[in-house]
């Protein structure tokens, strides 16, 4: 109990330090318990975190044998969009398997892959699967629409990641697509290059102008800790990415550095 109080105090201090510059939403916990939260039910522009909702939908459909990983998708040139990802640079290849598009959406945050996956089943179909009002999918990637914005909360982001990892396990998707994540500047940022035996990190970032989000699972052989941290830079200070890294470092130091379990 005293150790958790120490962690809570450290998190409180970190939140207070960044409050002048950042609007923040934070949820940290296990599959069964919340260990720390701050404005965890506040809505933020979702950025690429919304791709978790698309991923969960597809994994659920695959589990129910309504879709299959090896199904082929055709990508016409008109569907190529900019931003994150590589598909827009590979117009010569127009046939991709669902499994490949899912991988690109998660590991490289590919916007074209995401839009193709949404379009294959229909935006309204995925929207109908989102029973949690804290997850709002309203538009495609890189296609702004007036008065429409994808939104999410920190608590909902953590729940989405838990669901996606559980579905990957049931479907025997190994290694996890999150384990191949190419963007680890956020919550894992101070840990990604370190030699940490038996410690694993799975994450999905979300970045826009003034937005720095990351959702992650840190785990070892004893436990898994889920983190969802969303931020809006109110003063254009560039502090969001540093805040994410310090959260990840604090969680690692408290729960994993000495193999301490909760």
Automatic annotation (TrEMBL):
Family annotation (Pfam families): Beta-lactamase2
GO molecular function per UniProt: beta-lactamase activity
Superkingdom assignment: Bacteria
A Gene Ontology biological process term: beta-lactam antibiotic catabolic process
Residue ranges annotated for the Beta-lactamase class A catalytic domain, each copy included: 36-230
Name by which UniProt lists this protein: Beta-lactamase class A catalytic domain-containing protein
